[in-house]
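It would be a great kindness if you could assist me with a short task in structural biology. The matter concerns a single protein, recorded as an amino acid sequence and a row of backbone structure tokens. Could you please explain, in whatever detail you think fit, how the structure tokens follow from the sequence? Thank you for your consideration; the sequence and its tokens are set out here:
___
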Amino acid sequence: MANKFVEELRWRGMVHDIMPGTEDQLDKEMTTAYIGFDPTSDSLHIGSLVPIILLVHLEKAGHKPIALVGGATGMIGDPSGKSDERNLLDEATLAHNVAGIKSVLSRFLDFNATTENKPVLVNNYDWMKNFSFIDFARDVGKRITVNYMMAKDSVKKRLSGDEGGVGMSFTEFTYQLIQGYDFYHLHKAMGCKLQMGGSDQWGNITTGTELVRRMNVGDETAKAYAMTCPLITKADGSKFGKSEGGNVWLDADKTSVYKFYQFWLNTTDADAEKYIKIFTFLDKETIDSIIEEHKNEPHLRGLQKRLAEEVTTFVHSKEDFENAKKASGILFSKNFNEEIRTLDESLFLDVFEGVPQAEISKVDFDEGLDMIAALAAKTNFLGSNGEARRALKENAVSVNKDKVKEDYKITSTDLIQDKYVVLNKGKKNTYILKMVQS
């Protein structure tokens, strides 16, 4: 089992740190392992896709995955990688976020499966809510020294001011102890022997392995292991998982499937070569072949297209991928005016999200809207009537991607979904007219 799992992760570039003995344990028997998810939002973004994929790989290799939602730790805030104290969430917001994250995780892991290694979903609030401060300080706090906790990078950086922050509260200082107790609890209650996470979690995870050892003194069978994956970066040094609109989310109501698909389609060659190993389940031979073909014909962007297909299908569905691909192709189609009308309104709006628009009354369309009004007088798409005339004379203006002259009038027959018209000046400037009744 170990070779299947750890070696699979190694060639994909998904192993950063691994505690000695971890591979032997995975090789020996079906092993229960967990990863924690922080409920700072009611959804997860693509930064969380790596730990999700880790759990899926774990299950495929015959081991038992536990997804932990941090209902308790979410009340405190993880200082790892943070330079400032985090705002605490109220209980109602936290409960809402926990429910949202459970919903997302359920799309990737079948918590209702009947297999021996079926995935399990837990919330650490369930075992922390009745744990008194005195009991925690006596039973858990005495096991780990302050010196041990201070030696962790996440603590040292905050206390030294390296991160430019303002120190660390006692609340955040205790975070690693509570996360460590999670490992102990899962070890005791479910036989969990491995915790995984991002490389920034190494300090918290090893505190957990230490706590398991110290709270089971004399029990030689009480073994606990740790493994982390690298934090995903972009080749140019900019932050992974961000687009112009902010985070790229796993829920379509936060990031549309079209925008999600476009994010992967627009990755650089260097990033796509790395991401296709991490974010897809394609085997090594297939990936090597795709990369080789791409190097021979990079202009076809075959690598990015396959990456976008695999990840969009995994996170959403095959049908969602097909619709996003279709919408993407229509933008550059010679039959744009015809094909754009086959999209439903929501997908049309996804495609043109963020494009400026003006509302034009139905009366104007009924009478025929002249091009100067459409470009300038009624919309301010172009700066002046003179600029509009020049653009029309230069044959730079199109209505629904069909070139038009100054004498053209826009009517209801130009409407897409009985509501929209797409104007372009050149290839890069786009504007939407939206018909309103008044």
